[in-house]
Design goal:
Layout: H1 2-34, H2 37-42, H3 45-80, H4 94-109, H5 116-128, H6 136-155, H7 162-166, H8 168-182, H9 184-203, H10 207-241, H11 254-275, H12 316-340, H13 374-394, E1 399-406, E2 410-417, H14 423-427, H15 430-437, E3 443-445, E4 454-459, H16 468-473, H17 475-478, E5 485-491, E6 496-500, E7 507-510, H18 517-529, E8 537-542, H19 556-559, E9 561-562, H20 574-598, H21 603-611, E10 626-631, H22 634-641, H23 643-655, E11 661-667, H24 677-681, E12 685-688, H25 694-701, E13 714-718, E14 723-728, H26 733-744, E15 753-754, H27 765-772, H28 782-792, H29 797-803, H30 808-820, H31 840-850
Parallel strand pairs: 7-11, 7-12, 8-10, 9-15, 10-11
Antiparallel strand pairs: 1-2, 2-4, 3-4, 5-6, 5-14, 12-13, 13-14
Helix pairs in contact: 3-4, 3-5, 4-8, 5-6, 6-8, 6-9, 8-9, 13-15, 20-23, 29-30
């Protein structure tokens, strides 16, 4: 009975297991049936192997691309930044390899990012061979930590644009931040600790074994030195114990020397007789000239400087050989001294943007006429000549000769009057000549400076456009040696007119609306962009109309300067204009302080000293770029701000020339209430486009002529006593867009050039410094500066100036306040001040006591 129940229980259990197994199979079948077939295929074992092969292939390609990028990074960067004539990279991986290597090296760990190829290759091996005993996670972490450490250490030594290639963004930013925030000693100590930590954790490095290895190496090196020392000592002892017998030399006489020479002669003669036929080769034994192998004796007329005691009867060959050897030894000594000297390479301001390429001429359009109808031109010249002669004859004015100089828009007719003709009589006929020629814009120059002739300028019937490309391609522009070259246009004699803004040193521009004033400003900007590197030139652009300079906003991080808290690089708001002008005055004062400390008189001498590394940046010295202030509509600023704008501009015009700040001011209303006497006195260079009245012409040029221009770029420029008529170079909007697009496509600075920060209520300049020097008001940056000084434990004014982007004067005032409240000690000359506060808690107590926290 019991056995029967047991058997029934076993059958029931077996039945339940069978039912459970069947249900599991059904549910599994249902689950597999519900999944999409494509997903099953992509997750299959075969596709996993394909993924592995792809990873390994990518790893090999990445390794080749980065390794090739080490040698071809210059061409790769030129291709990536789309520089001219660099359409194909030299990278072995081609264009994909150039892009891949660029992004891995620049945005990660520099050239050490080549370690990623190992990680990808191991992942590919694991996917392809599932049973491969690889520890991918540990190897990947170890590789990444190693790359990060190498990148950081490389960041200690590279600071310019090459740093991104060597150390990458990670290395440059972490290395530089660590170096500047903690100092060199602590930074190196942290790097060593990180090295040991990585070695212990990732590479199972034992400190004990490392110490033993260093000790064994030191013992081995010391033992080697001891062995060499013992060998030298042993050889010296042998020489002292067993000295070699010296041969006694018999003093040689003149007879002995003659005997030796005779033997030498006879021996050589016998050898010659064996080689040649004696009948053909004959020597006269009595004639010393016939003895080619006998050495000549010393010539008594040649002085000798014998530097040994071997005697005076020596052949010339012996003495010359000694002299040659002595000369060689002297050369060797000189060479060693030259090799031993260390020459410090000059500072290159362009190093930060070493790959920057200036714009090419192909970005500009060529408007020049390829073929000129000379017959039509000659007919026009002859017709005008006859009309001028006829008009003068009507008024009984005789002329000797007349010649014509054809310009792009105006032809100059030079007249030589007959004797006894008064010049004023011809000059008064200006309107009559214009009436007979039926031409607008006739101008009489009586007399032409430097010539005994009278000039009559007559507009051409078919004027020609002067393109900016013609000026840029001209030899006068290409071969100039100017500091700030400006190509304005062409003269009547078709010569390119190029001037140096640094010598002008400021320019005043006026003209009625639509006469070419804005085009002239664009020509000036284009000229400077074609010749100066971003490190050498900065623009401050003020545009009350908000549309003239808007195209240049994209080159903010290349060529533009602005206040630290300004978002837009082109200044349009009147309040910001006033602050910017005050900031430029502050910059001017700071630069004069630097020139005074460097004992130089101008920016050119100062930068030459800085390039030669004769000025220490730790003392606040820095490379000074030229700054060009451009104001498009000055009249609008005077109407809205008045004296607040006029005074800083007058101050800059009076003082800023020597320190490289130059002003270019344009207005369409050249009235006396806009262009005051204070401004005119400091703007010797003036450009006048066509104006509406003689009064405006006299306001801008101190004479007539601007009201007689024909417009469309026709202009007069005065650089002192001379007045020159030009056709302004034409730069269209698409050409400006091409130039700024070319600049924008290249590597840029992290930010625009920052001017000294000036509060809105500041008066600016040296007066503000004097008024606020003894003020009890705590500066807005006092807390930031104090925290920076306590954290760095270095009381340096230049540190505050550099970290907080402040001017030198303001940073100095903050340092005085820090000294007043016992945060830093007194000044110690060129050394950094002692920091009296050691912890942030002490500093916080001072802030609370002052009521600023």
């Amino acid at each position: 009975m019991h056995n029967r129940k047991k058997k029934n229980n076993q059958k029931t259990t077996t039945y339940k297991k069978a039912i459970t197994k069947t249900k599991g199979k059904k549910s599994k079948t249902k689950k597999d049936g519900d999944s999409f077939p494509l997903f099953r295929f992509l997750g299959s074992e075969r596709m996993t192997q394909v993924y592995g092969v792809v990873f390994m292939a990518f790893a090999v390609f990445l390794f080749i691309s980065i390794f090739s990028h080490i040698f071809t990074h210059e061409s790769d960067l030129g291709f990536i930044h789309k520089l001219p004539d660099m359409n194909n990279p030299e990278n072995i991986g081609g264009k994909p390899g150039a892009y891949l290597a660029y992004y891995f090296t620049h945005y990660l760990f520099g050239i050490f990012s080549i370690g990623f190829s190992l990680i990808f290759f191991l992942i590919g091996l694991r996917l392809t061979f599932d049973k491969t005993p690889l520890r991918i996670l540990k190897t990947s972490i170890t590789t990444i930590l190693t790359m990060a450490w190498l990148s950081m250490v490389a960041g200690f030594f590279v600071y310019d644009s090459a740093g991104l290639f060597v150390a990458g963004y990670f290395g440059v930013f972490t290395g530089e931040a660590l170096w500047l925030s903690t100092g060199p000693l602590v930074a190196v100590l942290i790097a060593v600790i990180a090295f040991l930590a990585i070695g212990i954790i990732c590479y199972n490095l034992s400190i004990k074994s490392l110490g033993n290895g260093i000790a064994k190496t030191s013992i081995a090196i010391g033992g080697s030195f001891m062995w060499v020392f013992n060998k030298i000592k042993e050889q010296k002892t042998k020489r002292e114990t067993n000295p070699k017998p010296r041969k006694t030399k018999k003093k040689r006489t003149d007879a002995d020397l003659d005997t030796d020479l005779s033997d030498l002669y006879i021996t050589n003669r016998n050898e010659l007789q064996d080689e040649y036929d004696v009948n053909k080769v004959h020597f006269d034994l009595d004639d010393p000239a016939e003895m080619p192998l006998k050495p000549e004796l010393e010539d008594e007329g040649v002085p000798f400087d014998i530097r040994n005691d071997l005697g005076s009867n020596l052949p010339d060959e012996f003495t010359e050989e000694n002299e040659d050897n002595e000369g060689d030894e002297g050369d060797a000594e000189n060479g060693e001294s030259e090799e031993g000297m260390l020459f410090l390479e000059d500072y290159d301001p362009r190093a930060d943007l070493s790959t920057y390429q200036l714009p090419g001429e192909t970005l500009l359009k060529d408007y020049s006429v390829k073929e000129v109808d000379t017959a039509v031109m000659r007919a026009e010249l002859v017709e005008n000549k006859n009309k001028i002669e006829t008009t003068l004859k009507h008024f009984n004015i005789q002329i000797k000769s007349i010649s014509a100089t054809v310009g792009p828009t105006v032809t100059l007719y030079e007249i030589v009057p007959a004797e006894g003709i008064r010049i004023s009589k011809i000059k008064n006929l200006e309107d009559d000549i214009a009436l007979n020629l039926a031409a607008l814009g006739i101008r009489i120059i009586a007399p032409i400076p430097g010539k005994g002739t009278i000039g009559i300028e007559v507009p051409n019937k078919n004027p020609r456009i002067v393109s900016m490309r013609e000026i840029i391609e001209s030899d006068k522009f290409k071969n100039n040696k100017y500091d700030l070259p400006i190509g304005l246009g062409k003269t009547i004699s078709n010569e390119s007119f190029v001037v140096d803004l640094a010598k002008m040193p400021h320019m005043l521009m006026a003209g009625a609306t639509g006469q070419g004033k804005s085009v002239g400003l664009n020509a000036i900007i284009a000229s400077l962009l074609y010749t100066k590197h971003p490190s050498e030139l900065k623009f401050v652009m003020i545009d009350p109309k908000k549309v003239e300079f808007s195209l240049y906003s994209v080159i903010e991080n290349y060529y533009l300067a602005k206040l630290p808290d300004m978002e837009e690089p082109i200044i349009t708001d009147t309040k910001k204009v006033i602050r910017t002008l005050k900031s430029l005055c502050e910059e001017m004062d700071e630069r004069y302080d630097l020139l005074k400390a460097a004992k130089t008189r101008n920016i050119k001498e100062y930068n030459a000293k800085f390039r030669a590394r004769q000025l220490n940046p730790l003392n606040g010295h820095r490379f000074l770029p030229y700054i060009v202030l451009l104001i498009d509509e000055f009249g609008d600023l005077i109407m809205t701000a008045g004296r607040e704008v006029e005074m800083p501009i007058a101050r800059l015009a009076q003082l800023a020339r020597a320190i490289g700040i130059h002003l270019i001011i344009a207005t369409q209303r050249p009235s006396v209430n806009i262009i005051t006497g204070t401004i005119k006195a400091n703007f010797p260079a003036r450009i006048a486009f066509r104006v509406s009245s003689k009064i405006d012409s006299r306001t801008i040029l101190d004479g007539n002529g601007a009201d007689q221009l024909i417009g469309k770029g026709d202009m007069l420029i005065s650089t002192g006593s001379d007045l020159i008529r030009l056709q302004c170079a034409f730069v269209d909007t698409p050409e400006v867009e091409n130039i700024v697009r070319h600049i924008e496509s290249q590597q840029a600075y992290p930010s625009a050039f920052l001017l000294p920060d000036v509060p809105e209520d500041s008066k600016g300049g040296r007066d503000d410094d004097d008024d606020s020097a003894g003020s009890d008001n705590i500066d807005d940056f006092f807390m930031d500066a104090a925290s920076l000084i306590v954290q760095a434990q270095q009381g340096s004014t230049s540190l505050i100036q550099r970290k907080l982007s402040l001017g030198y004067n303001r940073a100095g005032r903050i340092m005085d306040q820090l000294e007043k409240y016992k945060i830093v000690g007194p000044a110690k000359g060129s050394k950094a001040r002692e920091v009296l506060v050691k912890t942030n808690d002490e500093l916080r107590e001072i802030f609370v006591r002052l009521g600023i926290l």
